[in-house]
């Protein structure tokens, strides 16, 4: 008789319920398949999550996602239908969603009207408001985590980084969100934060819908801050009193904010007012998600498009003719870092060093954060743009990289973001 453990039989029966189809995508922790639920005759999406190297236990990200999604039931939050182990992997069964908001933004065949943008933003904020009412931070808001169904409904997905918040003493990691969507308090290394980080990311998504490209595309944490300050001006202590006390705070050269209209020429006055409130520097004064939903932007004309009538790209797994995104259009110079002597070595370029680190296989371009000691000259960096054209500046030579002393290595590894992948380990 075959040595088959009885506790494996239910897993096999559950797995047999689903007939897997095409692969929809592959991420860090596993693969997502399109499948047919033979019990309900409904199309579903199955995320197969690999276990650890020695198959001991389950990926903690998956467990967090399962725990939270079992409690989050809302029309604008993805539904977890089932979860089962099979052949050494954990399988999460979700309702099938045809596309995501990133595909909408990238598809140049789609024309988004102001009413369409308002509808997508309203659904995004409704899902986020529900999460915040349940004291859940999403912490990974970005367009490809906002899924779109066949009925046009947008739903928040990927809750692997989500956490319960509300305790004033609880500390979190600041290494959350994709960098382009991180709030400035996270970039300055705060360990205490709340719902404002999700609001900032939602503002970045709003801007991306208006511009049809990512709004603030930094190549490192310091470059990201430079992009933010170039867009909205360097914050003054009166705007954000707690800023100077954050763990990774560095002083930036003061620059005035350009008119918001110059960044979003197509936006209405109401849209600009909402954006400005979502991008408020001080998280204590930043608009909440519920306040954003009650903003006059959503009650003014035009009314949000009915989700069923929203333009959508081809469903996942089907051929799509996407045109690459246009390059970053914000070309104005960013502020330089005015570091004190103890921090100057953390951001200054050291000629003759090796090339910069790679991220996603792409050579990172240096930002305009070169700075000498406070007593030295800053002429070289003063007029350097935020994202340097490496080929034009260095020719065929590899660009220099910041020097890192042994005492500052762990601190700088976070500040300069040499690694894209990280293991989230909250306390």
Automatic annotation (TrEMBL):
A GO biological process held by the record: regulation of cell cycle
InterPro entries: CDK, CDK7, Kinase-like_dom_sf, Prot_kinase_dom, Protein_kinase_ATP_BS, Ser/Thr_kinase_AS
Record: residues binding ATP: 24-32, 47-48
Region (Disordered): 393-427
The reaction(s) this protein catalyses: [DNA-directed RNA polymerase] + ATP = phospho-[DNA-directed RNA polymerase] + ADP + H(+); L-threonyl-[protein] + ATP = O-phospho-L-threonyl-[protein] + ADP + H(+); L-seryl-[protein] + ATP = O-phospho-L-seryl-[protein] + ADP + H(+)
Family: Belongs to the protein kinase superfamily. CMGC Ser/Thr protein kinase family. CDC2/CDKX subfamily.
PANTHER family in the record: CELL DIVISION PROTEIN KINASE, CYCLIN-DEPENDENT KINASE 7
Protein's UniProt name: Protein kinase domain-containing protein
Native species: Amborella trichopoda
């Amino acid at each position: 008789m075959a040595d088959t453990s009885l506790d494996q039989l239910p897993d096999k029966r559950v797995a047999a319920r689903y007939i897997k189809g095409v692969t929809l995508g592959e991420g860090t922790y596993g693969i997502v398949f399109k499948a047919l639920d033979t019990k309900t005759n409904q199309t579903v999406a199955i995320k197969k999550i690999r276990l650890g190297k020695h198959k001991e236990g389950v990926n903690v990200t998956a467990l967090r996602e399962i725990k939270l999604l079992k409690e989050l039931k809302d029309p604008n939050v993805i539904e977890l239908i089932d979860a089962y182990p099979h052949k050494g992997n954990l399988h999460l069964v979700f309702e099938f969603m045809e596309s995501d908001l990133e595909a909408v933004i990238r598809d140049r065949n789609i024309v988004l009207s102001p009413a369409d943008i308002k509808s997508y933003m309203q659904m995004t904020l409704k899902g986020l408001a529900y999460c915040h009412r349940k004291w859940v931070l999403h912490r990974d808001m970005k367009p490809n985590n906002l899924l779109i169904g066949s009925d046009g409904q947008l739903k928040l997905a990927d809750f692997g980084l989500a956490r319960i918040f509300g305790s004033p003493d609880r500390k979190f990691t600041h290494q959350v969100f994709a960098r382009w969507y991180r709030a400035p308090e996270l970039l300055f290394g705060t360990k205490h934060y709340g719902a404002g980080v999700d609001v900032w990311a939602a503002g970045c998504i709003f801007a991306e819908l208006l511009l049809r490209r990512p709004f603030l595309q930094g190549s490192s944490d310091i470059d990201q801050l430079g992009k933010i300050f170039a867009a909205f001006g360097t914050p003054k202590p009166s705007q954000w009193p707690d800023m100077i006390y954050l763990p990774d705070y560095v002083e930036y050269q003061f620059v005035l904010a350009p008119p918001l209209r110059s960044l979003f020429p197509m936006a209405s006055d109401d849209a600009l007012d909402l954006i400005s409130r979502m991008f408020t520097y001080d998280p204590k004064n930043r608009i909440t998600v519920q306040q954003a939903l009650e903003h006059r932007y959503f009650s003014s004309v035009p009314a949000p498009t009915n989700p069923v009538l929203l333009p959508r790209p081809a469903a996942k797994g089907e051929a799509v003719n996407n045109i690459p995104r246009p390059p970053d259009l914000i070309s104005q110079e960013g502020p330089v870092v005015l570091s004190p002597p103890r921090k100057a070595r953390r951001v200054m370029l050291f000629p003759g060093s090796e090339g910069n680190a790679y991220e996603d296989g792409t050579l990172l371009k240096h930002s305009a954060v070169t700075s000498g000691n406070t007593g030295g000259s800053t002429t070289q960096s003063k007029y350097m743009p935020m994202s340097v054209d490496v080929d034009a500046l260095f020719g065929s030579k590899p660009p220099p990289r910041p020097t890192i002393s042994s005492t500052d290595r762990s601190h700088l590894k976070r500040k300069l973001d040499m690694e894209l992948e990280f293991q989230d380990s909250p306390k």
